[in-house]
């Protein structure tokens, strides 16, 4: 399966606007990646994991504020943030599984 990095980046950037919760909290890990043609894989992976972490922290913060009775946070915002964090985490786990599988396949190749 071929994955085009530029189309993947464009899709992620288009989803970025949907990730920001309407409750006024913006994760600090969201930042423009820019041109990734010269970026190394470790940097991109680190940014992706940081992004997932930011989504989880935002979700947790919204849930805590809702439980404490903050009227500016709605249940729908909290549920949506939690689902986005869940989907992002599951996607990260799947990417990790594919990377481990590819590594094992490469290591089992005869030299």
Automatic annotation (TrEMBL):
InterPro entries (UniProt xref): FliE
Its subcellular locations are:
Bacterial flagellum basal body
Q: Which UniProt keywords apply?
A: Bacterial flagellum, Cell projection, Cilium, Flagellum
Which Pfam family name is an example for this entry? FliE
Main localization is other
The Swiss-Prot or TrEMBL record describes its family as follows: Belongs to the FliE family.
Report the PANTHER family cross-referenced here. Answer: FLAGELLAR HOOK-BASAL BODY COMPLEX PROTEIN FLIE (PTHR34653:SF1), PTHR34653
Q: Give the protein's recorded name.
A: Flagellar hook-basal body complex protein FliE
Q: Which organism is it from?
A: Shewanella jiangmenensis
Instruction: Identify the gene encoding this protein.
Output: fliE
């Amino acid at each position: 399966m071929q994955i085009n990095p530029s189309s993947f980046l464009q899709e992620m950037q288009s989803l970025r606007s949907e990730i920001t919760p309407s409750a006024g909290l913006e994760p600090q890990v969201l930042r423009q990646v820019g041109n990734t043609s010269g970026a190394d894989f470790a940097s991109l992976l680190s940014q992706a994991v940081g992004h997932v972490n930011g989504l989880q922290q935002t979700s947790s913060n919204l849930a805590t504020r809702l439980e404490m009775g903050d009227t500016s946070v709605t249940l729908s915002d909290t549920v949506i943030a939690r689902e986005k964090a869940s989907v992002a985490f599951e996607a990260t786990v799947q990417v990790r599984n594919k990377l481990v599988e590819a590594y094992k396949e490469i290591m089992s190749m005869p030299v």
